[in-house]
Specification:
It comes from Akkermansia biwaensis. By secondary structure, this protein is of the alpha/beta class. It has two domains: 24-199 and 316-401, Aminopeptidase, CATH 3.40.630; 203-311, Alpha-Beta Plaits (2-Layer Sandwich). Helix content is 36%, strand content 23%. Strand 3 (84-94), helix 4 and strand 4 form a beta-alpha-beta unit. Helix 8 crosses helix 9 (386-401). The two termini are 27 Å apart.
């Protein structure tokens, strides 16, 4: 009887706590929409988020019990220390906008010409502010410490994450979570990205081929950089099909090929640029080796000189398997199992990947409703996604701190 009594009592206590969390989250719904609209109207580009950073810092201070630190000039970390000792968890939101002229038709559209939140970072920031407000009201119940990481410059390499990491302000954090809104998934649905590689790395190259100009009727007098560049483009198409393990995601896309001005002139040079995506460190290294080898040998065979700038961008996000399991269970409890789904790996890249240098990480997605893709001028994330985002973040943080 005693065992049964305490089991029922514990079950009722858990239901009561869960109900209280839902009530707390519901109470910030209006705030989160208001914050999102303000941020959307006042976007700032990467490394220039001065007003955004001040706005976020002021809002965190207004909650009354959150310590605010500035790990970089335009980034903010809010630290909430629970009344009880325990683990330390971080949740990251990025704040920067894009150099894109908005075409959404929103009543709260960007007031800054040529700049807009076309990737949804206003949503990320508003949701994390909502999460911070909810948890700040639960300080006496918290077992551990929460770091609310508002990061600058995700959109522009080398990214803001590295600056925050190098500041040392995340020392002692045991795990870091993050989320990104994605269109054409039901607003407020929560997508659980896979364990292991959850995105691609983002590398590429800038190539200048130096040939020798000539009259179009006398090609034997010149070294044609267009032919040389064309051979390179075609040979690069064999890297994925003949060097990468079948079934492993990898992409080589030459997006720039510029050369010449007249039909009867063989130009002196050609300029090429490419985007390269991989998901494993081994294939990332292989890609660079093959690209360098192909460019070098083709140019040599054609008698052309070249200058190659091979750029290593953000690495692939590596999701921790245990954190994924915890996050999925927490999200299902927060928003209902029907609103949670297993999401495929992202082909895009994110500097959230760098936080794995600090602690195990997990990155998920939040559906933002139907519409154009991220980075499109018409990208229009739905406000209705915000509340479920906050619910999931709050529950994930609490479950992690409680050791679930």
């Amino acid at each position: 009887m005693k065992k049964s009594y305490w089991s029922v009592a514990l079950f009722c206590c858990c239901l009561s706590a869960a109900g209280a969390q839902q009530t707390d989250v519901q109470s910030v719904a209006g705030n989160v929409v208001e914050w999102r609209h303000h941020l959307h109207e006042n976007p700032e580009l990467s490394f220039k988020e001065y007003n955004t950073g001040r706005y976020v810092a002021d809002m965190l201070r207004s909650f009354g019990n959150i310590e605010v630190v500035r790990p970089a000039e335009t980034s903010v970390i809010g630290i909430l220390r629970g009344a009880k000792p325990g683990r330390t968890v971080g949740f990251r939101a990025d704040m920067d906008a894009l150099p894109v002229q908005e075409e959404t038709g929103f009543s709260f559209a960007s007031k800054t010409p040529g700049v807009s939140h076309a990737c949804g970072h206003d949503m990320h920031t508003a949701m994390l502010l909502g999460t911070a407000k909810v948890l700040s009201g639960m300080q006496e119940e918290l077992q551990g410490t929460v770091y609310f990481i508002f990061q600058h410059a995700e959109e522009k390499s080398p990214g803001g994450a590295l600056q925050i990491i190098k500041s040392g302000k995340l020392k002692g954090v045991d795990a870091i979570f993050g989320a990104h809104v994605i269109p054409n998934m039901p607003a407020g649905s929560i997508g659980m990205l896979p364990a292991g590689a959850a995105s691609s790395s983002s590398d590429g190259f800038f190539l200048t081929i130096q040939g020798k100009g000539s009259h179009g009727s006398m090609p034997q007098m010149g070294v044609d950089p267009i032919v040389t560049g064309s051979e390179i483009v075609m040979m690069l198409q064999t890297v994925v099909s003949r060097n990468v393990t079948p079934g492993e995601m990898a992409v080589v896309s030459v997006g720039k090929f510029q050369s010449g001005d007249a039909p009867n002139v063989i130009p002196g040079k050609a300029e090429l640029a490419a985007s390269i995506r991989t998901v494993t460190p081994e294939t990332r290294k292989l890609m660079e080796e093959r690209v360098r080898s192909i460019i070098g040998h083709v140019c040599e065979a054609n008698g052309a000189a070249y200058k190659l700038d091979y750029v290593l961008g953000y690495p692939a996000i590596q999701n921790d398997a245990a954190l994924r399991e915890l996050a999925k269970k927490a999200a299902m409890e927060a928003v209902g199992a029907k609103n949670v789904f297993d999401a495929p790996r992202l082909s895009a890249s994110e500097d959230f990947s760098y936080y794995a240098q600090v602690a195990p990480t997990y990155f998920m997605i939040v559906g933002s409703g139907d519409g154009p893709p991220n980075h499109n001028p018409g990208f229009r994330a739905d406000d209705s996604a915000l509340l479920n985002g906050v619910k999931a973040e709050v529950r994930i943080i609490l479950d992690y701190l409680n050791g679930k």
